[in-house]
Amino acid sequence: MTRRAAAVAVLSVALAARGERVVDLGPSRAQRESSVAALDFPFTARADEELTGAAVRISFSDPVESLEVLVNDERVALLSGAQLAPADIPVRRELLSDRNTLSLRLRDREGRCLARPRAWNAVRSVSVVLTASPVPLPNELALLPLPFFDRGYDAAAAIRVVLGHAPSPQETRLASLVASWFAVDAPIPLSFEAQVGALPDSRAIVLLAGAEDAARLGLDAPKGPSVRMIDHPAHPDSNVKLLLIGGRDDAELRTAVESLAARTERLAGASMALRPPPSQPPTPPYSAPRWVPSARAVPFSQYPAGGVFGHEGSTPATLSVRFRVAPDLWIWPAEFVVLDLGYSERIPPGTVPPRLDVEMNGFFLATLAEAPGGSVERVRLRIPREHMRGYNELLVHVHYPEPDPCAAAAVPGGGSGERPRVEIASDSVLHIESLSHFASLPDVSLFAFDGFPFTRVPDLGETAVVLPPHPTQQELSMALSVFGQLAQITGRVGTRAAFLTPQDEAGDRDVLVIGTLADNAWIARWDGELPLELRGRPRAQRSGPLLDLLGGPEPLLEARRADELLSRAGEVAAIAAIESPAARHRTAVVITGTALPPFREFLGYAQSRGRGGDLLLLAGGDRALFRLGTSFGRGELDAWTRVRWFLATHWLALPPLLIVGAWLLSRNLRTFLSRRMRARLALPEAT
């Protein structure tokens, strides 16, 4: 965890204890660079809460002449340049509703509207501190995912999962299926916190395998495979609920969980009896419902995630197409992927056409030419291969000239009533159909953000999971959070993952190992092959043949950089990846360390040298990625491309090859010329 994240977490806990929470509103980069005289920030209440109070919190980096603060068009404060760090500005309760707007307006000394370029650079941050009271919810399964999270409010959520007793590997599998089922349709990042043998004082999902588990938790015993929503015993008639999934024994609990994971039942009512799900065939590789197929050209209209293809009006907007592709689509040695983008503009007379800027994953691609007359214009854009990822965002920014902020509002369409409209053509195509599947593994970043190689088969039929015989709550939480993220990546619950004991064999599977050197025998068995040495003080270690050094001295430099980070750290957590010792060309991902943080702490920016790595470290408040060990290629490449890829990654082999090649060429050339010379000397003299 970074120092900033730790400070935010401490502040959040303190505010939660007072029934408050802080919602960060901005400003965004575009808003800071804007010359508009007013900014609007919407904020809402959760669907299961009622706002009882609010306060506006603004911090400044430079003085402002005068700033008017309004909530729902009612002034709550007027700040001058002398008030750079005012106290929280209270908002009267009668001004608040379920949906609210905070407005900031720049004024001059005479109170007139003020607009100048980058005037908002002086505002460092804008947030609201909200207090709310819960609204009692009925015990209704159809409300899910409420009250655990609100799709229209929450940006992230942590879900408690309670088990009645210490789980076996198969019971851990059931808890992981529940996490996957709950996360698969969630539009926000979820993390899961496991708890064993006791109810938390909060909403939670509870797994019950009989009357003994129910009695231990103070709940009614299940009467068969079922799912129920009830009030938390300590919070009757509130929005604090328990979602009970269980049965009278282990077999009925498995029936209930697998029925939910199959997602064939529509949940409604306070409780539902669950039936064994129909058997499903194994899913083939690269068939994840959330991934754009790569075997054929797919138009934007058929992308699983959809997008915002059109905008109507003369205000700035962003059109978006968000999508996932297989993370191992191999573009090299090509330099780019072709995007066939169609777009149209319907601009009424008297309206200045907008500027359309296209970006991919935060990188500018092009400014589009005007499309007159509402006809569909087409352009072929080249997306550099380094800008393509597993999860992608194609954005088209619509920039209209900023009107005079202090002038009267113009009539749309010059009085005709017609509104401008900009649209992305739904038959636009990103051409990935000719790409093969190949990846240079192991790569921790592919696992952390795309779940690869486990997500290659969406039901995780080629995945083995190994936890300690008696996992801690942190280790269980890690497994549940990983499975929840894998389900969000693929759009499918990982029903076919195998959960192994220390005595089992992984077979021909990719392996996920969670635990420490002391409690997981698999980590102790592979300790010498991991890029992190955990015996004694943690340190980086290299393994693999000297052939790897043909790619340059980078592994040695990376090991030194990792040791520098480890030398100044206390607790260390890591994700390490190696070629599986259990099966050739399979990957083993090991999540370990002296302490396990929540999985979300591994995500985000990591210091690196700009390429993938086999070791991700959390140490001393820093997150860093390293490449220390050997790599291998997995996938389908033609022989010539594979040779070129090997030479590109082992470039120190090129000089000897060139020298040997030149020597062989010169030797053959000398032999050839000698033969020609002898042949010419042997010719008879002309008569």
Indicate the topology.
Blueprint: H1 3-17, E1 20-26, H2 29-33, E2 38-44, E3 49-60, E4 66-71, E5 74-80, E6 89-91, E7 99-106, E8 123-134, E9 157-163, H3 169-183, E10 190-196, E11 204-209, H4 211-217, E12 226-231, E13 241-247, H5 250-262, E14 271-273, E15 307-308, E16 310-312, E17 317-324, E18 329-330, E19 336-346, E20 355-360, E21 363-368, E22 377-384, E23 391-399, E24 421-424, E25 429-431, E26 436-441, H6 444-450, E27 463-466, H7 473-490, E28 498-500, E29 510-514, H8 521-525, E30 532-533, E31 539-540, H9 554-567, E32 572-579, E33 587-593, E34 615-619, E35 622-626, E36 632-635, H10 639-649, H11 654-681
Parallel strand pairs: 9-10, 9-11, 11-13, 27-28, 27-29, 29-33
Antiparallel strand pairs: 1-8, 2-7, 3-6, 3-8, 4-5, 4-7, 12-13, 12-14, 15-17, 16-24, 17-23, 18-26, 19-22, 19-24, 19-25, 20-21, 20-23, 26-36, 30-31, 32-33, 32-34, 34-35
Helix pairs in contact: 3-5, 3-7
Descriptive terms for the model:
687 residues, alpha+beta, 7-stranded mixed sheet, 6-stranded mixed sheet, 11 helices, 20% helix, globular, disordered N terminus
Architecture overview:
This protein is α+β, with helices and mostly antiparallel strands. 20% of the residues lie in helices and 31% in strands. It has 11 helices and 36 strands. The protein has a 7-stranded mixed β-sheet with strand order 28-27-29-33-32-34-35, sandwiched between helices. Strands 10-9-11-13-12-14 form a 6-stranded mixed β-sheet, with helices on both faces. It has a 5-stranded antiparallel β-sheet with strand order 15-17-23-20-21, with no helix packed on it. Strand 4 (66-71) and strand 5 (74-80) form a beta hairpin. The chain is globular. The chain starts with a helix and ends in a 6-residue tail after the last helix. 34% of the residues are buried. Residues 1-18 have low confidence and may be disordered.
